[in-house]
Amino acid sequence: MGEESHSIQVSGMQFSYDAIRSPLFFDFNLDISPRSRCLLVGANGSGKTTLLRILAGKHMVGGRDVVRVLNCSAFHDTSLVCNGDLAYLGESWSKTVGSAGELPLQGDFSAEHMIFGVEGVDPVRRDKLIELLDIDLRWRMHKVSDGQRRRVQICMGLLHPYKVLLLDEVTVDLDVVARMDLLEFFKEECEQRGATIVYATHIFDGLETWATDLVYVQDGVLNKSQKLSDLNELKNNLNLLSVVESWLRSETKIEKKKTQVNSTPQPKKSSPFDSSPFRSSRHMAYYR
Ligand SMILES: Nc1ncnc2c1ncn2[C@@H]1O[C@H](COP(=O)(O)OP(=O)(O)OP(=O)(O)O)[C@@H](O)[C@H]1O
């Protein structure tokens, strides 16, 4: 098989967490081309994490043709994840770990034990990541700081040379040096190995020159999907932070206007599938 024209292709996707509420995504379409470093932006609750989890094959949505990654079905073709072509780095560790309070990890494992426990890894790549993330292999995982734990998580997630990498706010706990080094590493991965990266974040420092593409999701709707170089606001000397801030602020105003004019809560979107037994819902979806 030659190089795919799209690394990620979503066609007419519908997804709902809850059968009672209207779907979060309805007839959602998205194309992401190979080698792109795509920023996924949007307000809290707009659907970024859900979208990344769907792309990572963690929710079953529709048939095999709806969510395609590297020309395979993200959910059905489990080899995508098993062979390491599709990698997802999300908040799972820090959430489970963070909410466990005094018990971040149940056993007393060293960073070395965790990292060297991942099998089939190129030792050169492993050493490079350990150095890049400045990991001390003697760290005891139950005693380290959030940022140190996060470094080990990131290292483990990147050990296999993925083709598509989905990142959900992974740099929040990192100091500025670790963050910038990691972003540079990701850039090399796209340029040298042809990897594709989708990165959801609220931290925009340094991303103007890092990202190639931008996807803006508003309330489950694709508001923008374009090359960063085509973004007119950025040409007017504004930084990405100000541009995204102005988009999100105007979103809030629209919402407020709606509330003033009409105080009765309206369903967000109606769907011809609402009464269909085939709509995606919490009952239909399979969770990994
Ligand atoms: N497990 C769940 N069950 C039901 N609803 C959920 C679940 N997870 C998320 N949602 C809802 O889906 C919507 C999208 O959430 P999501 O986490 O995808 O947003 P997000 O853009 O990643 O937000 P943030 O920027 O805060 O991380 C929100 O309205 C949220 O309340």
From TrEMBL:
Gene3D superfamilies referenced in this protein's UniProt entry, alphabetically? P-loop containing nucleotide triphosphate hydrolases
Which GO cellular component does the record give, naming just one? cytoplasm
Q: Which GO terms describe its molecular function?
A: ATP binding; ATP hydrolysis activity
Q: Where in the cell is it found?
A: Cytoplasm
Q: Does the keyword Nucleotide-binding apply?
A: yes
Q: Where is this region: Disordered?
A: 255-288
The Low complexity compositionally biased stretches are: 268-279
For the keyword DNA-binding, the answer is no
Question: What top-level branch of life does the organism fall under?
Answer: Eukaryota
Q: Which UniProt keywords apply?
A: ATP-binding, Cytoplasm, Nucleotide-binding, Transport
Report the SUPFAM superfamilies cross-referenced here. P-loop containing nucleoside triphosphate hydrolases
Q: Where's the ABC transporter domain? A: 8-244
Q: Give the similarity note.
A: Belongs to the ABC transporter superfamily. ABCI family.
What is the protein name for this chain? ABC transporter domain-containing protein
